[in-house]
Amino acid sequence: MNPKITRSAWIALLLSAGCSHQGGSGQAPQAHPTATIALANQTGFPLPAGATVIAARSFSQTVSAGQAGRSPLTAGSAGTYAGQEVIARTPDSFSTAAAWLRGQAANPPAGIGYNAAAASKTGNVQKMMNRDGLDYGVFQDRNGDKRRVILVIVMDPAAAKQKLGFALDMAARYRALPAALRGPLDAQVKDRTGFSIEEALAPESPTGIALSAIDQFAEKDQRAVILVDARRQ
Fold first, then answer.
1. SS3 content of the chain, % helix, strand, coil (to 5)
2. Is the backbone of residue 134 left (phi > 0), alpha (psi -120 to 50) or beta?
3. Which of 44, 75, 218, 232 has the fewest CB atoms inside 10 Å of its own CB, making it the most exposed?
């Protein structure tokens, strides 16, 4: 199904809640520090053929017990996850990139297994993400390091920005709302779209991680592949 809330509807809802406009455009959620590491894929997880690494940086995210249910990174355990994030671009279509991801899930690299249970935790959200130009898979180390998790996200930046851009535009004003007003708004949005604004912006969620990288893709005719290789500390 298609979301029913348009950008104008979002603005009307926020204005009706008494939220005043704040200067500047909304910013993507910050999921981690942006310390640069070698511009290469050092995760050991392959990228699609023809993909080019455009950013590589350290990753650190603390996921609380309350956030664990919406974060596939946790694999069932809250805590601080640290490692690296690799952002690559590919000329493949989104459907081809998503098919590549499904192929990795069916036949993971040696020593790595696909964690279907982690994806099933947010299954409804994942279906909504597919519609919005996003897909992801969760993989785990099979060589004895059960604390290591690899989150692989594929994204069509143009489609994601078109369909989820309202979340970025509304981020600053949404955060300024008192919790008492954010709750009912989140509930209404989740009822119509499958996930709330809070879930869409949460830096520990696949949407939050993807949206934090969206500004790396100014060109429309390219897709993104994001690898987050993190280990629970």
1. 40, 25, 35
2. beta
3. 218
Contact 151, 138 (CB under 8 A): yes
CA triple 163-134-221, angle to 5 deg: 75
Q: Determine contact, residues 36/196, Cβ cutoff 8 Å.
A: no
**Could you write out the DSSP letters of every residue in 135-182?**
EEEEEEE-SS-TTEEEEEEEE-HHHHHHHHHHHHHHHHHHHHS-HHHH
CA separation for the pair 57, 97 (Å, rounded): 22
Stronger pLDDT, 185 or 170, i.e. the higher one: 185
Most confident range, picked from 77-81, 174-178, 198-202, 221-225: 221-225
Band (233; pLDDT cuts 50, 70, 90):
confident
CB 139 within 8 A of CB 115: yes
56 neighbors 38 (Cβ within 8 angstroms): yes
